[in-house]
Amino acid sequence: MLCKRIIPCLDVRDGRLTKGIKFAGNVDIGDPVATARAYYEQGADEIVFYDITASHERREIMLDVVDRVASQIFIPFSVGGGIRSVEDMRAVLLSGAEKVSVNSAAVKDPDLIRRGAEAFGSQCVVLGMDVLQVEPTGDAPSGYEVVIHGGRKRMGMDALEWAREAERLGAGEICLNSIDADGTKDGYELTLTRLIADTVRIPVIASGGAGNPQHMVEAATTGRASAALIASIVHYGDYTIPGIKEEMRQNGVPVRMSW
Amino acid sequence: MIAIVDYEAGNLTSVKRALDYLDIPNRITAEAETIRQAKGIIFPGVGAAGQAMRTLRRTGLDDLLRERVERGVPFLGLCLGSQIVLESTPENDTRGLGLIPGHCQRFHPDFTEAGLPINIPHMGWNAVNETDRAPSLFAGIEEGAEFYFVHAYYPVPEAPYRLGSTEYGTSFCSVLGREGLWAVQFHPEKSGRPGLTLLDNFNTYCREAR
Predict the structure, then answer these.
(1) Which CATH fold topology does A5-250 show?
(2) Is B78 helix (H, G, I), strand (E, B) or coil?
(3) Which of A61, A129, B57, B203 is most solvent-facing, going by the fewest CB within 10 Å?
(4) What digits encode the pLDDT tens for the residues B113-122?
(5) For residue A96, which residues of chain B lie inside 8 Å, CB to CB?
(6) What are the boundaries of each domain within chain A?
(7) Domains of chain B, with CATH numbers?
(8) Is A40 in contact with B192 (Cβ distance < 8 A)?
(9) Which residue in chain A is spatially nearest to B141 when comparing CA positions?
(10) What is the pLDDT of residues A168-184, one digit of tens each?
């Protein structure tokens, strides 16, 4: 049976983690390569790097990070942030990432998904979606609207429609981030997650709101997500990946237990 | 030296990185001479079967690979490579290398897991079971260890060549072949420690062969 995946997300700026990460023992590591390696050894099923480097000139630094990660960790990992073209995708994949994720660039240019899938295969192309709950309207009849720029800009696009369209264009996966749940630690937005997961036949990664391992269980069961993205709950040492997986397993969720 | 056969079927650097990490001498190559000198052959692949097979025929690598296998050179097919080693696949209606008797099938969209329709492709970590018939490849790997899969078609070899199985809406063959001629549907180079152990086991077998 296919395992549900636990995916830590690391924010990187100019080759360094944006926040120090504390593992047991309170070691503060700013190096994304060492941190990725630590999560790999703890049983992360995949890793997401989100590059928030502001200037285009400093992108090379991220490619170097990707290359060093790929030489040391042997699980899939994806890179998102600032990917606007097939050439950007190619650079990241050739440096050793398994997948690229596109978000606002795909909202502005949906055909980017198709071009990426055609060049590298759907399994390489992840659509990141930031979604806000709204009053159901003509633009967003499902009551969920696509937003960009961290939720600051509403796009007048229905989230459900955008998920369908992305699948049709060849996205291999959807990373679904609820702006409402993000940062609350109250759990994933399960209604939204299930709505999208029931609509498309590609995997949906739940994102935003994780506060404890029971939230991962809910995302996998009630939310029908294939994977759950986690950040602060492991970065600050509140929970460990093996602990989260053990709780999921005890709740009957299939997870990878040998690494 | 292990030859990683380059037949324009995807990015092979992740296989190379894994072998480099294990200190296994290796080369990504399409050259007949290098492949002839290799103590073992890794036959990777992502992408579409039709295009891959056309390239193999155009370059004559299909005959060379059959010849090396006949001579007993250890061989390991990965992912798409585990489908091309069979006689045929419905993907692009393709005739394969025929190193192992059998064919391929596509996951049926009506297959279900836990009452829900499966996603296609099968992507993610899944357990590989019943590997006791591939002891040298799976030495030191726990029974039921999970490996990383990405595929829409799966191998259906003849019964004597089924060496391991995985559940995804159906029970399919994820390890096939025989001693010295193996193919795995998953990506060992992306499967953490069990995957690295498998690659290391293959190398050990290559060094001890002959």
Answers:
(1) TIM Barrel (3.20.20)
(2) strand
(3) B57
(4) 989 999 999 9
(5) 13-14, 17
(6) 5-250
(7) 2-208 (3.40.50.880)
(8) yes
(9) A258
(10) 999 999 999 999 999 89
